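--- STAGE predict ---
source: upstream dedup step, 1 unique chain passed
mode: sequence only
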Amino acid sequence: SPPPPLRRLSLYDAACQIAQEIAEKTQERNRCQRNGESSAKLNVIIRSSLQNLREKIDQLKDLLLRAVSTHQITQLEGDRRQNLVDDLLTRQKQLQASYKNEGTEPDVIRSSLMTGGVKRGITNPWLLEESEETRGLGFDDLRQQQQRIIEEQDAGLDALSSIISRQKQMGQEIGNELDEQN
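--- STAGE serialize ---
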């Protein structure tokens, strides 16, 4: 089995992905209900995913408790991770409430999931208003967009690095010229 940090990270990513899929399936179910289509299959998938998410959160809590109690991580890191787990737990409760709402007032549910909420001066990333670029995108689309942004940032950093290298070289040449002049 992988070391705890890697296991925890993949567990956290998996939990975030499940939460995203539940939100998408709930929206799809609500659309079906508004159009008078059957949503029984989606309800089964959502219920199963909610249970899976709850189990992943419980596993994350256990891993975190062990890591803190055996001093594998600092108290500060423990607090940071606890905030992430708390945010996931809040998200899970909101998704559960949204699921139980059976599709009534989906826009109200969606906005309540996506807005408001500041805790200890840190904005909860789950509760930020969704931007125009990401609205309507699925999990894979978001991941591809994120990868594209990272590649653009890497290219920008490479360009910045070459500029800084050139300036360093110019500075050294100016220094050499000053030494010769002196």
